[in-house]
Amino acid sequence: EKEPTPLSDHTQLAPSSLDRLVRRCLEKDPDARLQNARDAMHELKWIAANPTEVSAQSQEPETSKKRTGLKVWQVAMAVALVALLAERFLLPQLFPPKAVDSPIQPMVRAMIDLPEGHRLAGWASPTVAISDDGSTIAFVTQSESVPANQLWVRDLGASESKLVPESISAEGPTFSPDGKWVLFAVGVSGTKPQGVTRGLKKYSLETGLTQEVCDTRDFFGASWGKDGTIIYADQLPKGLWQVNAAGGTGNNFLKAAKVQEKSYSSLAWPQLLDVPNKSLVRLQGGSAFLRLGILNLESGAFSDLNIRATATAPISKNRLAYVDPKGTLLVAPLNTATESVSQSGIAVDRDISIAGAGAAVFAVAKNGTAIFSRGAVRGNRRNLRQLKIVKDKASITLPLEPNYFTGMAASPDGEFFATVLDGKIRVTELKGLTETVLPLGKVEGPMALRWSPDGKWLAFRGMDGGTTLDVFVIAVDGSSEPRRIFKAPSEAAPRSWFQSSRELLVHDFALDGKRLRLFRVPFDGEPTEVNIEPLADARLSPDGSVLLYLERQGTRPALVMRSFPDLGPKVRVLPGDDWRAVWSRDGSKVFAFGSEEAVEVDITREPFLAASQPRSILTNPGSYVWPHLSADGFGGFYVMEDVPGSGIVTQLEIITNWADNMPTFD
């Protein structure tokens, strides 16, 4: 019943401040007593911060301790309690343990099968995406039954993928920061069914429903910010756009990036950083093609990282993973404060797939899980192909080894063949297989080859350091470098030669992005626009008297023709708007390739312009890409064919703990 005497009466070196703790532990009044270990911890912290002198009582003679009324077992329990609390709560505060890095977990590889009968789409960049927490992936496929792109999502803990509704002709999936939504584009390129309109959509993983976000003319990547703003690249070259994730109208908020004294408006593949108003972005124009840098979204200033990249992923410990144009995967140190990479990247893998528009099939989650595919992907310009002549439903393979051809054209006499390989134009004499590489000078990215009727010139589109795709001509004997004959406001391509071999018909995207324009472009002189309704894929007959083109105006799109240059009444050749058409060498037939079959149509001019009923010449021509005019005497047409079995990607590779196992930098 007595009050306990001070602890210092029983142990000489006990500090007087400890008396208070023991008294409160043994206090009779419940309201005054310490209630729990947390209260005791606070007292111990106070003692550590306010050390006291040894109590006066501890200096008294030992005989004075006889005054105690405290039982020995009570003192022992109090001291034990204090020691326990000190060890549990006080000592870790006074002497915290040294931090020990947790061991790096090994990488775990897995292969994810795509849905049965589906292969990875080659023109849907970015083709794959992964949520920040690494739990869910999204990918775009094609199949023989559905040639148009389709978007799928898969929880990595589940056994099956889910088809995203309203995703026909989808491309470019990207996740919201919380992983609950997938953003994607539809209708901007490739095969699309009638009725699909261009735009951005978002799919909810919680409800399974798809909603519209905004309209768009084209699409070159997007990034979903934590504040709900989506940054995306629309039609090139128009800078970057933004829209609220809830939906609305896109705003072209940044017209161009400032690179020293130049401005670049062809911006693509934005990737927001964890730094306010900064994004990784790649330039898409001229000699700057695929040049990677950090873009200030407020000022437009572009800090060049001196890297050419086809895919990028900022990863932990201030590092950047990226894929170069040859498919090599590298890791480099990234300093977002100084907006620089301090040393060259270290190669960590190779043969990563490159898909459409020069974008690799590669992504990394914030938790370090990586997803990618390897090798060629069918459906884009970078695939293993062989060259053929198709005639009377049979084909002859040209004596050229299969390669990654991205363009071709035959000479009028059929003795020479021009191809685009590794960014160079190569002219091959077919009998002796001798090859000439044409001198392109500063021009890069040649595409859309067209051989002149007199056999002396090749027309093509390319870039010479600017931000637009222009039209050039070059002598096939390699005697001179290219000459630009059409400077495009945005993106142009040669379509047909006039019989004189001194004038071209050229397509150009109007700056408003709403239609293709058609121009007559002479070697010497100013271009003149051909006033015609919205069209696509215009082709002039060999004698220059008939213009063939796709009409996409109204509700009944069709392949039509009109007399030229007077633009007489339209004559319908074939219904639908997915035809790729070419003239026979003598102009008596049109060969047209659709998604399900290829047909030929006889064309007569007397007593009036008319087209016969189509005759099927090929079924399922999907493996043939970019048909071209035939040479005299063959009566057929040239095609590039994907080598059977090549580019068929039916699995994706997943690696957990990937980022943790990559090289680090001091």
Structure at a glance:
It holds the Pfam family PD40. By secondary structure, this protein is mainly β.
What is the topological layout?
Blueprint: H1 16-25, H2 37-49, H3 72-94, E1 108-113, E2 118-120, E3 128-130, E4 136-143, E5 150-155, E6 162-163, E7 170-175, E8 181-186, E9 199-204, E10 210-214, E11 222-224, E12 229-232, E13 240-244, E14 251-254, E15 257-259, E16 262-264, E17 267-272, E18 278-283, E19 291-296, E20 302-308, E21 311-315, E22 319-323, E23 329-335, E24 340-341, E25 346-349, E26 354-355, E27 359-360, E28 362-364, E29 370-372, E30 385-391, E31 394-397, E32 407-410, E33 416-421, E34 424-429, E35 434-437, E36 444-451, E37 457-463, E38 470-475, E39 483-486, E40 492-497, E41 503-509, E42 516-522, E43 528-530, E44 535-540, E45 546-551, E46 558-563, E47 571-575, E48 580-583, E49 589-593, E50 597-604, E51 610-611, E52 615-619, E53 624-628, E54 637-642, E55 651-656
Antiparallel strand pairs: 1-55, 2-4, 3-4, 4-5, 5-6, 7-8, 8-9, 9-10, 11-12, 12-13, 13-14, 15-16, 17-18, 18-19, 19-20, 21-22, 22-23, 23-24, 23-25, 26-27, 28-29, 29-55, 30-31, 30-54, 32-33, 33-34, 34-35, 36-37, 37-38, 38-39, 40-41, 41-42, 42-43, 44-45, 45-46, 46-47, 48-49, 49-50, 50-51, 50-52, ...
Helix pairs in contact: 1-2, 2-3
